[in-house]
Write a structure and sequence with these properties.
single chain, 133 residues, mainly alpha, 4 helices, 57% helix, 0% strand
């Protein structure tokens, strides 16, 4: 049912500091037993963040998004040049720009979204830390 569908999904970045409960199918302890919790140690959190890196490219999200926009614009322009007659850069160069630019721009948009979500989670974690007065 619903539990079977959720079991195959990876944990969300916002769930990184929460306790993990083992589903009933794999459980050997009482039903409410908590299997593991995250340590408050800074080194453990840093190592966990490295392991849970959920973005493909480690660049700031605005740079990924700007690169994606430039690639998309140049690819669409190259596509129009190909369909409109003789391209100024020649057929081969224009076709390569179009063929590589369109999929790469889609991938960079996807990477920017993932990186932006990770940056937001990191900022939220930093904001929610207890502070000394």
């Amino acid at each position: 049912t619903d539990d079977d569908e959720v079991m195959g999904l990876p944990p969300l970045p916002s769930d990184a500091g929460k306790a993990v409960v083992v589903p009933q199918q794999q459980q050997s302890a009482p039903p409410a037993a908590v299997v593991s919790t995250t340590s408050n140690n800074n080194n453990a959190v840093e190592k966990e963040d490295e392991l849970l890196q959920s973005y493909p490219i480690d660049l700031p999200s605005p740079i990924l998004l700007a690169t994606s926009m430039v690639l998309a614009i140049s690819s669409i322009g190259s596509l129009f040049e190909l369909s409109g007659g003789t391209p100024k850069l020649g057929f081969a160069v224009t076709a390569v720009i179009t063929a590589l630019g369109l999929p790469l721009s889609v991938f960079l948009i996807y990477a920017a979204i993932l990186k932006g979500a990770a940056e937001t989670e990191e900022a939220d974690r930093e904001f929610n830390k207890p502070r000394r007065l």
